[in-house]
Amino acid sequence: MGLSKWVPLCALLVVHSVMVTADDGLLRNGDFETPPPNGFSADGAGDGPVLIPEWKSNGTVELVESGQKQGGMILIVPQGEHAVRLGNEAEISQDLKLEKGSIYSITFNAARTCAQLESLNVSVPPASQTIDLQTLYSVRGWDTYAIGFQAESDEGIVVFRNTGMEDDPTCGPIIDDIAIKKLFTPDKAEENVVVNGDFEEGPWMFRNASLGVLLPTNLDDETSSLPGWIVESNRAVRYIDSYHYSVPQGKRAIELLSGKEGIISQMVETTPNKMYNLIFSLGHAGDSCQQPLAIMAFAGDQAQNIHYTPIANGTFDTANLTFTAKAERTRIAFYSIYYNTRTDDKSSLCGPVVDDVRVWGVSGSKRITLGWFAVALMFVFALL
Ligand SMILES: *[C@@H]1O[C@H](CO)[C@@H](O)[C@H](O)[C@H]1NC(C)=O
Ligand SMILES: *[C@@H]1O[C@H](CO)[C@@H](O)[C@H](O)[C@H]1NC(C)=O
Ligand SMILES: *[C@@H]1O[C@H](CO)[C@@H](O)[C@H](O)[C@H]1NC(C)=O
Ligand SMILES: *[C@@H]1O[C@H](CO)[C@@H](O)[C@H](O)[C@H]1NC(C)=O
Ligand SMILES: *[C@@H]1O[C@H](CO)[C@@H](O)[C@H](O)[C@H]1NC(C)=O
């Protein structure tokens, strides 16, 4: 065997050992199942600050156990036996090894405990995002969220902070299952100007994340967990997988929730005065969502509402909208027209599924000539 075969391999190993960054998946003790040095204490907080392996904490931070009660209410532990609860202004943090300039997404589960408004400030300074836990998207009492950020250096720290100041200091959100994923921005396919139009690249999803991952608004923060896309509204959209939902193409898609309050958009590069087709899959997620399902699709100054009509055993249909670009960048966007809930559970939000979004220039001078012919014809009709 020639030596030359080994050289690239060695080079690869060297490069690899230099850049040891966090692997995709759960953070160290990201599920809070590693026992503290003095063991889990059955009735929550003992004396003094609680030690959580791999995490730093400040303020009233408590490890809660599945089945644990508070004021007659059983605390929600999203996964496994343990989770963490953050009291007033309390926080937990963990150091992260990152790659400067790269985009990452952090996925986590969060639940409210008391009925008050609760919100979490999740930050990887200088990036930060506040997650409003007031809206529950599913009846089980907790949801999975993902937020995106760009690494400003190779050393980062992720901080979860409860910004609340409740009368009852033990009220506060419960968090569990914190994972990270380094995102890449897929190349645009030839002809199609939409980036990540098939939604295959997105946040970390636990294999058994049966209710998808909520993507909250990222308008003020330009980095989303969905490369190419912006969640523009004050409510979240749901990132779903083919293991638990009907997905038109590939393994991932977006389920639009909360009517006009859940908008995704992308600015695509266009040539002014050129004609384009916006083509996408529109369907149902297979989650017993109450019909009717319909979306509003925007392409520049064009807006069109499109109803999804289930045909036979199909789970989706292809929609097609023609527009003429007015500028070098055109906004395409989607929201659900209705505010849908599941037929089997009226408290869980659902909605139409959008996937495989493509914007293609209408090519060939023939079609353009035909277009002009149509305009001329309309003009003649108008005169008549
Ligand atoms: C803990 O939080 C308090 C109040 O938010 C702050 O003043 C203090 O510096 C923090 N301590 C550490 C060690 O971060
Ligand atoms: C996912 O499955 C694993 C193994 O099957 C299990 O240990 C874990 O608790 C599950 N997580 C959730 C969120 O259900
Ligand atoms: C969230 O935390 C970050 C970092 O500590 C801070 O800069 C930001 O102002 C906080 N945001 C809110 C809304 O409290
Ligand atoms: C729908 O699916 C069922 C069961 O898979 C099958 O028996 C039926 O022929 C299908 N109908 C159509 C129109 O494809
Ligand atoms: C979309 O409609 C245009 C005409 O308006 C047609 O040329 C094109 O083939 C259609 N594309 C798809 C995928 O249906």
Question: What is the secondary structure topology, with strand pairs?
Answer:
Blueprint (H helix, E strand, L loop, with lengths): L5 H13 L6 E2 L29 E3 L2 E5 L3 E2 L2 E2 L7 E5 L4 E7 L5 E9 L7 E6 L2 E6 L9 E9 L4 E8 L11 E10 L29 E3 L14 E2 L5 E5 L10 E4 L8 E6 L5 E9 L9 E7 L2 E7 L7 E9 L4 E8 L3 E3 L2 E6 L2 E9 L3 H19 L1
Antiparallel strand pairs: 1-13, 2-7, 3-6, 4-5, 6-13, 7-12, 8-11, 8-13, 9-10, 9-12, 14-16, 15-18, 16-17, 17-26, 18-23, 19-22, 19-26, 20-21, 20-23, 24-25
The site of one 2-acetamido-2-deoxy-beta-D-glucopyranose has 7 residues, from strand 9 and strand 10.
Keywords: Cell wall, Glycoprotein, Secreted, Signal
Protein name: DUF642 domain-containing protein
Subcellular location: Secreted, Cell wall
Task: Provide an overview of this structure.
With 384 residues, this protein is mostly beta strands. It has two domains: 22-183, Galactose-binding domain-like (Jelly Rolls, Sandwich); 185-384, Jelly Rolls. It has two helices and 26 strands. The protein has helices at residues 6-18, 365-383; strands spanning 25-26, 56-58, 61-65, 69-70, 73-74, 82-86, 91-97, 103-111, 119-124, 127-132, 142-150, 155-162, 174-183, 213-215, 230-231, 237-241, 252-255, 264-269, 275-283, 293-299, 302-308, 316-324, 329-336, 340-342, 345-350, 353-361. Strands 1, 3, 6, 8, 11 and 13 form a six-stranded antiparallel β-sheet that branches. A six-stranded antiparallel β-sheet has the order 14-16-17-26-19-22, with no helix packed on it. The protein has a five-stranded antiparallel β-sheet with strand order 2-7-12-9-10, with no helix packed on it. A hairpin with a 2-residue loop joins β4 and β5 (73-74). The longest helix is centred in the C-terminal third of the chain and has 19 residues, at 365-383. It starts with 5 loop residues before the first helix and ends with a helix. The model is unreliable at 1-19 and 365-370 (pLDDT under 50). It binds 2-acetamido-2-deoxy-beta-D-glucopyranose (5 copies).
